[in-house]
Amino acid sequence: MSISSLFEPLPLLHGPAMRNRFMLAPLTNQQSEHDGTASQFDIDWITQVGQGGYGLVQTCATHVEASGIGFERQLGIFCDEHLEGLTRMANAVREGGGLSAVQLHHAGHRANPLIGGIPSPASNFTVPGVRALTTEQVERIRDSFIAGAQRAEQAGFDGVAVHGAFGWILSEFMSPLLNDRKDQYGGSLENRARLTLEVIEGIRRVCGPDFQIGWRLSIERYGLRLEELREVTADILDRELIDYLDLALWDSAQIVQDGDFKGQSMLSVFTELARKRVRLGAAGKIMSAQRAAQLLEEGCDFVLIGRAGILQRDFPLQVQANPLYDSPATPVTAQYLRSGGLSERFIRHMRGWQTFVQRESL
Fold first, then answer.
1. For the NADH:flavin oxidoreductase/NADH oxidase N-terminal domain, which residue ranges apply (predicted)?
2. What mean pLDDT value characterizes the chain?
3. Second label for 297, Cα 20 to 30 Å away, from 36, 82, 158, 361?
4. What is the CATH number of the domain that holds 193?
5. Distance (Å, rounded) from C-alpha 124 to C-alpha 31?
């Protein structure tokens, strides 16, 4: 498949089409204010990527409850005081010609008490000394996701992306390792998937007919079972509950190591599912124009650009100009990132990623 295929429009179930096949992945950057409001650094970043040629730009993980915070300086969407900054962010993406989405997040058992988080595990054993959420508390968190989507719509975003990956609360509830509940949110796969489905169905019920819903799914770690996740995904695709599925793979080329699908590419386990009008994309070490085009050949409808978008904020435009474009080799210097417009807060966060930022000599 040629590079030109990456620049074909992609209709979605609800609302306007993506103008091309590039989506900016939700990138944690720890540059918001301590109360969750968007900082000028957030505005500057989203303006840069908003002008970068993406079909759709997702925000960083944005917590739907104050107590669900997972990172210092995490963007919030749990109160109306956040609306002004969020509106500025949505406007910045719109002015650049792309679609926009807030990634809705709650840290669950991984909420950080050092910055005001309250660990909220599915089970009693997960966090020493912390009891599992009651059924009523689970329902409150579900409703907080839905309220966050309503705020995103009010702020002018085209949609939301529901964070169901990396052991955060929706992923946690899906895991038979982390969820031993006896109520309607635990036990069978149907019950463990219930929170995710109620969040998605609730958002669709209360938001407008053009509002778009994405779902981020990861497969590795936290006791998640590939076969189960495939079954849940097949149901969501068949019922067209979402507009797009975002497969958060650490490597888009990775191979399944065990189980029923051993030897297959992880991506193929999901691309071979009937998806009706739902779109499917993948993230994971997509650093070049050629790899992005190859993923369309492998069955993706779009690609999610993460680290390559931090290195070069207009990655899609670089690809459009040069079909052989490849990202700069890492690690890069802090000055390289600084000269490209990345804030010191963002650079500090990226220092935590091994081999991304060069260590400075003392």
1. 5-321
2. 96
3. 158
4. 3.20.20.70
5. 33
| Alpha helices for 83-209 (secondary structure H) | 83-95, 135-155, 169-174, 189-192, 194-206
Average pLDDT (97-115) is 97
Residues 59 and 147 in one domain: yes
Q: Quote the pLDDT of residue 362.
A: 44
- Please check whether residues 310 and 360 belong to one and the same domain: no
Q: Are residues 308 and 207 in the same domain?
A: yes
Region 205-211 average pLDDT: 98
Domain count, the chain: 2
Residue with tokens 């179930």: 13
CB-based contact 26:161 (threshold 8 Å): yes
Geometric angle at alpha carbon 280, from 222 and 201, rounded to 5°: 70
Beta-strand ranges (E) seen in the chain are 22-24, 56-63, 99-105, 159-164, 212-217, 244-248, 279-283, 302-305
d(CA 43, CA 200): 28
